[in-house]
User: Fold Glycoside hydrolase family 65 protein from Flagellimonas allohymeniacidonis.
Amino acid sequence: MKHPISLTICLLFCLSVLCQEDGWTLSSGKVEKYTGIVAANGRIGILPEDKPFQTRSIILNNVYDKESPLGVSKILLGMNFAQLELEINGEKVDENNVSNWSQSLNMKTAGFTTSFTFKNKAKVSYTIYALRNIQYSGYIDVHVEPLEDIEIKATGIIETPDEYHSPNSTFRVLQDLETTMPILQTVAESRLGRHLVGTSATFIWHAINSTRENQRPELVHDMVTPYDNRLSFEKELKKGETFEFAWTGAVCSTQDFEDPQTESERFVIFNLLTPREDLLGQHRKLWEELWEGDIIIEGNLQDQLDVRLALYHLYAFSRGDSNLSIAPMGLSSQNYNGHIFWDTELWMFPPLLMLNQDIARSLVNYRSDRLGKAKEKAINFGYKGAMFPWESDDTGEEATPAWALTGTFEHHITADVAIAFWNYYRVTQNMDWLKGRGYPMMKEVADYWVSRSTKNEDGSYSIKNVVGANEFAPNVDDNAFTNGSAITALQYATEAAKAVGEVANPEWNEVASKIRILKFPDGTTKEHADYDGERIKQADVNLLTYPLDVVNDEETVLKDLKYYEPKLAEEGPAMGQSVFAVIYARLGNAKEAYRLFRRSYEPNKRPPFGALAEAATSDNPYFATGAGGMLQVVLFGFGGLDIGEEGIIQKNAILPKEWKSLTLKGVGPERKTYTVK
Assistant:
């Protein structure tokens, strides 16, 4: 039986969302329960609110400070430059004096638009962009249409979170010859002083030469407190005279810049002096290029929107030019401290590998850039090779809180990384990358698993004292997924050695061929040595079928499916259902595959736009890991895609009766199109 919260949320969602027929836009009026959709560009994420001109937060990718003096690292909130206030005839516009409220996300252009009417005096709309082209900056494009003669006052704000200290808030007008550039700015130290963060912002008026002081409205600076820095202007508007302006800001830190203060100024000046058509045109062009990798579902608009929203988030949370990875919640929140888990390699990486190899390369490069720390960790725990952290931050050291056993014992992450590396090579056939980054890392991972395995009296090998994918069972021996992923990583290392012309360590194959996969008497795969039918947090055994292909005879595959699906806990994360759905699709059972596809995300949708929470019973969107899982069902299940030695192949595609057709567009380096009807 579905949890009551899930039913309530689903009803609210169905009542609130207006799904436009283009398959690209999600829209909503005012709702009681609200979860915004982030506008992000792989560097910053801007999360809107359901109140006029307000945003909840800005998240900075790969910028960390300790959460507390005795805590671990935590991703930083940026100074919130995406806050505005608008007064009309001396009255502040707020949620209590507006009507005709509407918000929409255009996934094609990554613009989040809010529109409303203020007391029959003016129609107002604004669109938030996290600029894809100017990656540390955002842009709010505002339109005011007076329904009578009015006076407006617009105020732009840099709001510094309380966790910062020693903020220095200023306003200066920079000048080069006749060009003047007004800059509102705050510079402050992060929580425990690890980083200096600089944020700048300014207004832009499109209809006039904004660089000449005598042609623009007078600007007034007001520093309410060092944490609340404001810049405003006033203007009279005639009925029917549409007025357009923008507010743009940039946030930089010492993680990426030696002088973040000055760099944030340069980004804002670039946005100020670049025509809107050019600036936003470049942003839209980059998103158009991202959407060359797309999934098109004909015959079911809601499924199309759900799938596009998942893919939108993976694109929004990543960049092909960054060598950064994606946290479970992307750039939507500080949940899980913004750390990097196996969520990337097992769940988000495969869809991106199919549809955007540039981003996929950034994800694997993030790991190879931190190989040195992984080797140090292996030595520190008495092993050889490289041992990757369960939770990773910018340093590559273990970032899991010490109280969580996962950080000390969930070791399958090290195999997951190697599996992603080999799949990247198989898809791209990039030999230079394999020689320079891929094989050196895979070799160290293979050496780790040899040293991590224990030889039994019968000649088999065990991997003892681990936390598996099913984290309900800590400190167990011979966990199915851990053992299966280690086998796969060892086998892939041998193949990689051959590909680069090296001689593989014979121990890799010896250990891989003798690591134990335990069975119950009836042949069902046993999750770990002491497993006796307990509830599971997520799929573990079934991962040996997909994606590992370690268990592949149909009789055992079906036994494992029927045994473990009923044991999946409702409070577990969404990905387990996705695994079951892919396997059923590959077995040719479209009915069961579609049932589990919908079950993998439908109970997790939060109104009004369908943001995914981690579980049906939780409220922590946006869960990018779940998005990766549902996309894998479409690509590797219904779409029949698979990765072979020569790259991407298609076999045994199957279409659920709820869809008329499925088109996978821009697949692989050759940008192929696959259609299932």
User: Anything to note?
Assistant: The radius of gyration is 26 Å. The chain is about 30% helix and 25% strand. The longest strand covers residues 55-66. The longest helix spans residues 431-452.
